[in-house]
From TrEMBL:
The chain crosses the membrane at residues 16-49, 61-89, 149-174, 195-221, 227-257, 264-282, 302-324. It comes from the Archaea. It is a multi-pass membrane protein. This is AI-2E family transporter.
Amino acid sequence: MTAPVLPPQVTPQRRFLLALAAVTALVAVWIVAPLAQYVLVAVLLAYVLQPVQRRLAPRVGARVSAVVVILVSVGAIVAPVAVVLAVAVRAIDQVRGALVGDGVDFGALEELAAAGGVDLRGELTAVTRRVFDSGFGTMLELFGGVSDALIGLTVLLFVVYYLLVDGQTLVAWVERATPLESTTSRRLRRDLDRITWGVVVGNVAIAVVQGVLTGLVFALVGVSNVVFWTVVTTLLSLLPLIGASIVWIPMAVFLFLSGRPVDAAVVFVLGAGVISLSDNYLRPIVTGHEAHVSPGLMVVGIFGGVLAFGFVGLFVGPIVLAFAKTLVDTLVDEDRHPAEA
């Protein structure tokens, strides 16, 4: 019979080290908190890019492969954003021309709004005045926002680089520092990897599918700037319950008011029956199957994560909630099978 393992004796030195560690941890959290969103994005990017960097590292080295992967990723992000911004400027100009020209019957639209008790012209004037009044304040805050963003992006790039280069060393250190048995540690690591992969890749894949479907429908009815609307829909489709409908419903209304009722009907029918309906079928199949996350937990995690962490909360929220469920399952299994723990 083996003797029970006694806890370490609480000596004055140990009490001092514990207190010092607690104070240091609080200060560390206070330092990292303003950059939490950038650090979380860096962790997710490093997770996604690690398989590519790992395959490239034996040929050119870990550090060079990390730099190459980061540069290619930045180019893959910056180039489409530049194209989308250029197309967005043209799209806004076209919408403005349609409103002031003959593309939309503004008088009929104003009568329709008046029937609902809305002074459309007065509301537009008030919105324009508010935008003009806030313009100077926005310009004054711009430089501060830009400087904060540059600091955050710098931190993001450095964190991604060092996670790609030394990520395995960090994981090994965490495993040594935690008092978990090797079987439990491997299980938690495997579950966290499965959850992260399912949430990140699943959500992105679903958003891309909805964006492409929206682009195809818009191309079918002759809507211009299809690439722009495809990218916008892809980004908005990351949000369930909102998703692609916030794009195709206004487009259907715009086509109807522009004297194209048949095209408007096509967009509405395909949008409701194909684009938005695909989210209900694909999300449980892709994300739920890979990450074992229920749709209800996914919705709570996404919107709660957005409120807590901003855009990155779209991914962090579901991952945290799903991993919390995994931790509870692990504790329950240990209580039921203490000999195997």
